[in-house]
Amino acid sequence: MSTPPLLYLASGxxxxxxxxxxxxxxxxxVAAEIDETPLPGETARDYALRLAVEKAAxxxxxxVAAGLPAAPLLAxxxxxxxxxxxxxxxxxxxxxxxxLAAFSGRSHRVLTAVAVRDGDALHTAVSDTEVWFKxxxxxxxxxxxxxxxxxxxxGAYGIQGRAAVFVERIAGSYTGVVGLPVFETAxxxxxxxxxxx
Length: 197
Ligand SMILES: Cc1cn([C@H]2C[C@H](O)[C@@H](COP(=O)(O)OP(=O)(O)OP(=O)(O)O)O2)c(=O)[nH]c1=O
Description:
EC number: 3.6.1.9
Bound molecules: thymidine-5'-triphosphate
CATH architecture: Alpha-Beta Complex
Number of helices: 6
Number of strands: 7
Distance between the termini: 15 Å
Number of domains: 1
Largest sheet: 7 strands, mixed
CATH topology: Maf protein
Keywords: Cytoplasm, Hydrolase, Nucleotide metabolism
GO molecular function: dTTP diphosphatase activity; UTP diphosphatase activity
Strand content: 25-35%
Order of helices and strands: EHEHEEHEEHEHH
Protein name: dTTP/UTP pyrophosphatase
Helix content: 25-40%
């Protein structure tokens, strides 16, 4: 059997790693620390795409600085939006409470932008998923916050965890909500010569 192709992963997200490993890829993590402050007037879509591209550029710089051999590199960003507002990761419990209350009984959108660098080429995609939450009681929100799940996640919840019971339905990409849309990602990587399945 030939060695699986290498992909640099400019991400510290365990969800992204798992979803890529599911595709059979061999991953090597590179650092990608960037400033995640939204620009004035920036839409959620533009914000997510800009951050994915900036993470990919930071990851590429880290690869070069570490003297690692060239290979395709992937970065992503997940952003939640409702009524024009951008919801990132909650700063604290009151922030998580505010986000979950905003989502209660209605829908919001989860945008995940993916950027793949392959030499001088940059390939990008954005998955856009609408998520409908059931009405949440104050007690449900408090119990969920106490679980600790909200704090490393955009929009203060993880659909793949206990917040699954909040979700009536989605329209779009489940893996996009989790943090990496597998269908769109496979298409981007296919353009770099990866073969699936
Ligand atoms: C909405 C939602 C988000 N998330 C997560 C996915 C992302 O990891 C996180 C959004 O933060 P991001 O800034 O997109 O990513 P990250 O900081 O976790 O990782 P990195 O920048 O190093 O790639 O929220 C879930 O796990 N489940 C969900 O249902």
